[in-house]
């Protein structure tokens, strides 16, 4: 079988590459070892797919080269993708500022991409692993269950290591290394943090309790919800900061973001002098958590018995609460993989390898990782669009 373009991976970035290349008249084959296309799309956003973020900027991405993503993002914007969604009459809504979701189901996004592929003459084959890939004088050749495939251009759109239950593997990284590329250190991102020992025991029984926090590590902070789990901490604020956290890093929480905690406690003493600290804190924080704070860390007595200095100290503690995480839940639940193919070895305009002619990398396999909230999908669309114009 002979094609102009062979795309490895039928996820967001691979399908977008195929759509754009097929629309240019290229003969495109997309292969994926999974049994259906777009598996990660299907499970994203609680099954409604947070398909883009209208506030996307290069600052929402983590990469050893923060400038790499700028060209592709500028040339294919969230509004370009929204136009495709609207053309297919898929209803959507804005959940949080900038975060767009399908009203109905993420299946609609996968169906849209496959319909676009069909319209562009793209062939998509699932349960079709690629192996024994090698370069030839006029492109690449590889083996599939369908037989040998020859293609002038090869696009690696295999994603990262996140959520292996959906078929994630390191195949794309191995392919990159085969053709002389460096892989920057890989680790799980947008992932819950785990606690252990006394640090877990002190929060035992709080699973399911959620509250708004500002989570901080050196160089990054995020104001969003936090959720206690049976094994540690999750929720958007923790997922966001996890991409910047490394073992041993100083992690702090403002448990009352946007509030001067010391002032609130002093005012509470004036208004409710007879109530205990845990009762007052229960009006500012989830009750179970407030009670636990006073059982383990904070002195609990009637408010009238506290001096200003004590309340100021408690307020400062609540605004800078230390958390000693032991690790993360790992790739099993991580939404993304940090690190990947070194972008210094890839053209930011075309996504083509600087090591091997006509070899392209798109999406998560590259060392470009977005924040939570639709940014990783926008990178998939933008990088796929850039490659699709070039292959």
TrEMBL record:
PANTHER family: OS12G0638800 PROTEIN. Pfam families: HI0933_like, HI0933_like_1st. Its cofactor is FAD. NCBIfam families: aminoacetone oxidase family FAD-binding enzyme. It comes from the Bacteria. Residues 187-336 form the RsdA/BaiN/AoA(So)-like insert domain. Keywords: FAD, Flavoprotein. InterPro entries: BaiN-like, BaiN-like_dom_sf, FAD/NAD-bd_sf, RsdA/BaiN/AoA(So)-like_dom, RsdA/BaiN/AoA(So)_Rossmann. It comes from Luteibacter flocculans. This is NAD(P)/FAD-dependent oxidoreductase. Residues 4-388 form the RsdA/BaiN/AoA(So)-like Rossmann fold-like domain.
